[in-house]
Amino acid sequence: ELGPYSHFMQKEIHEQPKALSDTIEPLLEAGFVPELFGANAKELLSKVDGVLILACGTSYYAGSVARYWLESIASVPCQVEIASEYRYRDAVANPNWLVVTLSQSGETLDTMEALKYAKSLGHDKTLSICNVRESAIPRSSEMVFYTRAGAEIGVASTKAFTTQLLALFALTATLAKIKGRLSDTQEQSYLDALRHLPGSVQHALNLEPQIKIWADRFAPKEHALFLGRGVHYPIALEGALKLKEISYIHAEAYPAGELKHGPLALVDDNMPVVVIAPNDVLLEKVKSNMQEVRARGGELFVFADLDSHFSESEGVHVIRTPRHAGVLSPVVHAVPVQILAYHAALQRGTDVDKPRNLAKSVTVE
Ligand code: M6R
């Protein structure tokens, strides 16, 4: 069942180009039409003027990427909430907002309860983005988008995450179109970007030998920092979660601009700092945050595309990630941090597919 791979996690990381092309297929056929989300979606989505995303763990980070997309592409306000917090808050409902639950398994108890709570507050436009057909959460939602990642066995979510991102991108573009904020040219360019995405992800997978060398250096460490800004900040969060979840190395992620407000105190020559730094509008800011780290002796491991113009120097290691047209860059950059965590865990000899204390579906509180 594992084929040439040593673990399900490794297999699932490598299945991403296929998982993505399978998930993209209906989009490429139909374009960004509401029907992608169900027969009743046209009517329901036409009334939406905001989006509330409810999720846990990795799914929450997928939602956090989507917030940047929804605001910048569709000009739709978005709130992303950790389900276990939302369900116990005295949240103020806005029935014109769409409630999106993100859950790979469709069975996560806190996400299910958060959905029930949102409905009890009067939210009746609900969409589930899920990888498991007919599971509890999609069954309780008005609209559904199934990602086509195939079964994910490793506890650490990989292909479910990147396909969730695609679903959220499709939602963003669809809302933008409904609101008249997506020109035909823009739609075509997004569809082209989607078409090329599996190829870019394959290029990222080809970086595995280089990333493994970094992972060997990480393995003896007990702490690591991950930095990103803007739409790449949630990818830093996801990288830190992957690393701690399977290698048990303590990892934290920060938006790089927050460094000087506290975490910079942790940085010394024993602290590896991973930076997600493709060329985007915040790159120059990230570069100056990196200088702050270097000045304190922190060793930098930078994932940067060709356009970021980084060169290696003492204490600054660079891996060139594939260039990928703007907005979908977080999908491509999720892959190297998964590989880094995987190889660091291998080096440490942990149980990669079944990390201690964790379960694939969290159906208890
Ligand atoms: O099935 P779900 O997407 O609802 O699961 C939510 C989290 O438990 C899950 O994403 C968890 O954080 C992953 N194991 C992380 O890799």
UniProtKB/TrEMBL annotation:
Keywords: Aminotransferase, Cytoplasm, Glutamine amidotransferase, Repeat, Transferase. Its main location: cytoplasm. Residues 41-181, 214-355 form the SIS domain. It comes from the Bacteria. It catalyses: D-fructose 6-phosphate + L-glutamine = D-glucosamine 6-phosphate + L-glutamate. It is found in: Cytoplasm. The active site is at 360 (for fru-6p isomerization activity). Its EC number is 2.6.1.16. GO terms for cellular component: cytosol. One of its GO terms (biological process) is fructose 6-phosphate metabolic process. One of its GO terms (molecular function) is carbohydrate derivative binding. Catalyzes the first step in hexosamine metabolism, converting fructose-6P into glucosamine-6P using glutamine as a nitrogen source. Homodimer. This is Glutamine--fructose-6-phosphate aminotransferase [isomerizing]. It comes from Chitinivorax tropicus. The chain holds residues 244 to 608 of 608 of the full protein.
